[in-house]
Amino acid sequence: MRNMWTGMVEIDDTALAVTDPGGDGLPVVYLNGQFATQGYWRRVIAELGPGWRHITYDERARGRRSKTSADYSFEAAVRDVDAVLAARGVDRALVVGWSYGAVVAAHWADRNPERTVGAVMVDGAFPHDWLDEAMEQRIRMLFKRIGWFSPLLRPTGLVPRMTAAQQAESNIELGKLSRESALGPVLDAIAVPARYVIASGTSFGSRSDEQERIRASLDRVTVRNPNIAISAKVASNHGAILRKDASAIAAAVREVGALDGKGVARPQN
Q: How many other CB atoms are found less than 10 A from the CB of residue 74?
């Protein structure tokens, strides 16, 4: 029997807006893109249907209700997964993350194998050294340029209630976390079923074939870790994948959910 719950979950110096339909279905927690909101997942949730327990939330300073914080670090984002699941009484969950959220999903799955049914990474968590000094400057200039109109959109929840500098630093931190030396060992250690759904073409701020070269780094990961596989590569780009290819993402979630409890290979050292 379902018992829809929407409310605020307190953690550290902030509170997060959470939606949990309840029910007996397998819990799936959705981890948003870096500055996105839980509403982005509505088509994926519709594709999967009511047989799952779809838990969504808005990260710190994202959306219309989640509160601001003094800490927008990646580690805070990982802690927030624990806080949301604990508040909703969920012991084990399947984590699904898009973009930045895919990196959060990978880290959470690596750190919590006994609590993770599996993971689905949507066009994110690619171990590639895309951040250099020139890219850092590009990122800072990009957020500085869009910063002038952000205050106009913040009340709508379309942009985070973070400064341009805070958004830039978050993106730069992501670049450091995505380096082969940093993310590669995390992916190699994942001991639960993990599937990727990969987009095509560009992402916000990328140029030419940059994003496709980043995605190609995944080939080495799937060779090293038998628990990780590519479920689908779709035609839509990074920004449109949740909207246009929800069915492919839902298929990957079903695939991982079906493997729960059946045993998977452990990564070879």
A: 16
